[in-house]
Amino acid sequence: MEAPRQKLMNDKATVVATTTLAEVVAALFISVDIYRFYLTMDHVGPTKAVQIASELRSHGFQAWLVGGCVRDLVLGREPADYDITTDARPDQLLQIFPKAQLVGAQFGVILVDGVEVATFRSDHSYDDGRHPVQVSFETDAKQDVLRRDFTINALLLDAASLSASQVVDYVGGLDDLRNRIIRAIGDPRQRFEEDHLRMLRAIRFAARFGFEIEPATLAAIQELHARIARVSPERTRDELARILTEGAARRGFELLDASGLLSDILPEVAAMKGVEQPREFHPEGDVWTHTLLMLEGLQAPTPALALGVLLHDVGKPGTFRVADRIRFNGHVELGEQIARGILNRLRFSNAETEQVIALIANHMRFKHVHEMRESTLKRMLRMNRFEEHLELHRLDCESSHGNLENYEFAKSKFEASAPEQLRPPRLVTGNDLIEAGYAPGPEFARMLEAVEDAQLELRIHSKEEALELVRSAFGPPNRVT
User: Fold this and answer.
1) What is the third-level CATH fold of 4-179?
2) DSSP class per residue in 75-132
3) What mean pLDDT, rounded, does the chain reach?
4) Strand, helix or coil for residue 51
């Protein structure tokens, strides 16, 4: 019996699509009118990838742009990076590019000035859900293409002679781009058994491009979703961060839910489904619906902001109760604990974790901005990356009751406040208090806070006034223990 990939190659070999990019674009433009593509030598020629490919060709080797960069070029998007595949063996690559970085010797992968260059290969059996046990270096680009994940990522483009502008397609990727489909190459179950992370990648690509996941591919994910637990936290984290920040976070999380992956990766978020909220504040529906609406409203967010939006109400399922109305007393504090557990589990950095926790901890404070003392409000406005707090609050309001009064008030105060108004130089320090005769102790923090309160509220303006305030509020030095 033929292996699925070999059978696919045999079936497709006689109908390989070798198509000019102009023809591809014309076809895409007819069926997908949002895509336009203009490829010129001026656009791609300066890239290091073209120079590397030309060098390979000058030594008699094949050199193709492959994968996501070709897909993005066809879709009229600027590729984030360029990958080259070639029939040159690793030892030959190192002879041509002696300064290259060897990043995957066993897989024939080197890095040349930031461009990944890989030898054609086929992979044989996986035993850890990520790495092939054995690879074979090949001389035919078709074999290399057939080992890849999805048809839209398996297109080839002649990198050294772009004037010919030819896309080579062995797996139907051009048709799937036209029809807006994410389809695994060959047997989808086998592709996901080889590398479990591909299930998350399918979700990400479908969300990012607004494509549908082909039924057999989606069915395979729904069957195998529990395998995602075998993927390292770091790899899972990186895919989630991209789903959250590439422009279609709501669609991504709806697909995570439909595929079964959400409950495996983020059961705390899945628990939001069906948790009702008081209609007078949340006419949109349950906590899950509210969170999806906020995700939909994200505009080029940082990972921390996107995570803050995702997790800001993660404490609600655990604090739900019905009294005079539905209430979630303590949901902020519980949410901080749950979120910290999630972020630690997924190996997010300390800096990102602390920012997400701060977003959760402070998201309910905006309802009090009109009643805050001036010093309290200024301390709030000077929080690290306050713009993200403000944006989370805007999304929170627009995805629920729609009242932006507190948002507009805080925004106007923030925009009108210079940094030195929010964080002026201290009028007194601990050393000043010691020099004034006060003994160091717990009272120092309260004294300094009282001084800063008065300073922020413009009630005092000098060191002398600050020390007088301390004497008035805390007594002379001999009364402090």
Assistant:
1) Beta Polymerase; domain 2 (3.30.460)
2) TT---S--EEEES--HHHHHHH-TT-EEEEGGGTEEEETTEEEEE-EEEEEESSSSSE
3) 88
4) helix
